[in-house]
Design a protein that fits this description.
Elements: H1 5-20, H2 24-31, E1 34-40, E2 43-48, H3 51-60, H4 62-73, E3 78-83, H5 165-174, E4 185-189, H6 195-209, E5 215-219, H7 220-232, H8 236-245, E6 249-253, H9 262-277, E7 281-286, H10 298-304, E8 308-312, H11 317-331, H12 337-346, H13 351-368, H14 374-384, H15 393-404, H16 408-412, H17 418-435, H18 439-445, H19 451-467, H20 469-485
Protein name: Chromosomal replication initiator protein DnaA
Subcellular location: Cytoplasm
Region (Disordered): 94-130
Length: 486
């Protein structure tokens, strides 16, 4: 099948549109450094800025793109890459990332549209004739955002990776963006992993599409305080009308803080039932799975599981790199690729901490006049952070090898000798507990083992720690060693 260049480009653009729709923010961030060259007889020629961009795009987006091209053409697609360090233009149909500027001055855009200049007076014989005023319809304006919603927390600024893909897709569906909608949607995960970001993004998307929607976003603490205030001032009818009648979307953050508050739980139970019966969307976040919520009524726990429970894990290395690059672009920070990679390697478990570290580096850079390069980042993070925060998988592997008198290669080898396998399992367990890295990332560090192998090892050591005094003694000794090195 022979196609013209225009036809080939059209096929490629359709594949790109399809792929970008799955994760716009991450796609825009990385594909800004990729350019289409040609698509002829199943050979797709692409140009990348550097090897780093090439590998990330190849791993995360290329399978979807080639599958779509194969679906459109029936070709068996092969990809030919070229490295072009001078590449600047992003590929077609992908908006370019905002220009980068120093952080010494942050200019916030005005929310008032600029007044257009008056039209130039006409010339010629019609100049003296008066013109009837032209009525210009006012642009439709979205209602003011609730005070507690962060305007930066949208789906466009949320970086999607394997660790949060399910929660992201479910959040889009909850906002009416397509796909099966689950009610309630229960999003759980550790601190600083993006639960609140997704909840805010749902509210923004709903307000964009339905400006008149009645949205309530509260923390569990705020819901409790509203309930107590209503009781004190004899305004329970107003409270119930607000939460049960005049509400199209209820978003509740940190539901775990209702623990032990029996009256508040009773009221929330009836609020939940009223909204669910009206098919009003309910989204709840927590740092624990529903079944692990302590001092929570069983009937509430049961209802939290009615829809979908979507968890967010600590992001993988590639996702962390994308997050820090995305944050740098949004804040106007010049961030070299090697610094982005370094930050992602040393800060593993918390997105909020990762972004906060970037902002601190930028602030220090602005004050001292030094560029945010790798040497600067290393010096500042080493000086400011405890050693425990920048401990690596390699540090734990070395400590385990020293404790069990093994060679470092033993932990990554295929050797299944009982003593080596036990030490390997202990090292995997400690990596998960102390570094909060993902199972696939640990697997790669231990000889490219499958993530299910790592999960099994961690569960095994967790069980043995509770039942086997010898295992517990090994772990306590290693933890003292690691704490002393911290």
């Amino acid at each position: 099948m022979t196609t013209s260049r225009d036809e080939s480009r059209a096929i490629f653009d359709r594949a790109i549109d399809h792929t970008r729709g799955l994760s716009p923010a991450t796609f825009d961030q990385w594909f800004g450094g990729v350019q289409f060259d040609d698509l002829t007889d199943g050979v797709l020629s692409l140009r990348a800025q550097n090897e780093f961009v090439l590998e990330w795009v190849k791993t995360n987006f290329l399978p979807t793109i080639t599958d779509k091209i194969r679906e459109l053409t029936g070709w068996s697609v092969q990809v030919a890459w070229t490295i072009d360090q001078h590449l600047e233009a992003p590929i077609a149909n992908v908006p370019q990332m905002p220009p980068v500027r120093p952080r010494s001055l942050v200019v916030r855009p005005s929310t008032t549209p600029p007044t257009p200049p008056p039209p130039a007076p006409p010339s010629g014989p019609l100049a003296a004739e008066p013109r009837a005023p032209v009525a210009v319809p006012a642009p439709a304006r979205r209602p003011a955002l609730p005070d507690d919603l962060n305007p930066k927390h949208t789906f466009a600024t949320f970086v999607v990776g394997p660790s949060n893909q399910l929660a992201h897709a479910a959040a889009i569906a909850a906002a009416g963006g397509g796909g099966r909608r689950y009610n309630p949607l229960f999003i759980c995960g550790g601190t600083g992993l993006g639960k609140t970001h997704l909840v805010h993004a749902i509210a923004h998307r709903v307000l964009d599409e339905r400006p008149g929607a009645r949205i309530i976003y509260v923390s569990a603490e705020r819901f409790t305080n509203d309930f107590i205030t209503a009781i004190q001032h004899h305004r329970m009818d107003d409270f119930r009308a607000k939460y049960r009648v005049h509400c199209d979307l209820l978003l509740v953050d940190d539901i775990q803080f209702l623990a032990g508050r029996e009256q508040t739980q009773e009221e929330f139970f009836h609020t939940f039932n009223a909204l669910h019966g009206l098919d009003r969307q309910i989204v709840v976040t927590s740092d624990k799975y529903p079944q692990n919520l302590e001092r929570m009524e069983e009937r509430l726990v049961s209802r939290f599981s009615w829809g979908l429970v979507a968890d967010i894990q600590a992001p993988e290395l590639e996702t962390r790199v994308a997050i820090v690059r995305n944050k740098a672009a949004l804040e106007g920070i010049i961030l070299p690729d090697d610094v982005a990679l370094y930050l992602a390697q040393v800060i593993r478990s918390n997105v909020r901490e990762l972004e906060g570290t970037l902002i601190r580096l930028a602030a220090k850079s602005s004050l001292t006049g030094r560029p945010v390069d790798l040497a600067f980042a290393r010096a500042e993070i080493t000086a400011a952070a405890p050693r425990a925060q920048i401990m690596s998988v390699e540090d734990i592997q070395r400590a385990v090898c020293h404790h069990f008198h093994l060679r470092s290669i033993d932990l990554t080898s295929k050797d299944r000798h009982k003593s080596i396998a036990f030490a390997r399992h202990v090292a995997m367990y400690l990596c998960k507990q102390r570094l909060k890295v993902s199972f696939p990332e640990i697997g790669r560090a231990f000889g490219n083992r499958d993530h299910t192998t790592v999960m099994s090892a961690v569960r095994k050591i967790e069980a043995q720690r509770d039942t086997d005094p010898q295992v517990r003694a090994h772990l306590e000794a290693l933890e003292r060693k690691l704490a002393g090195d911290s």
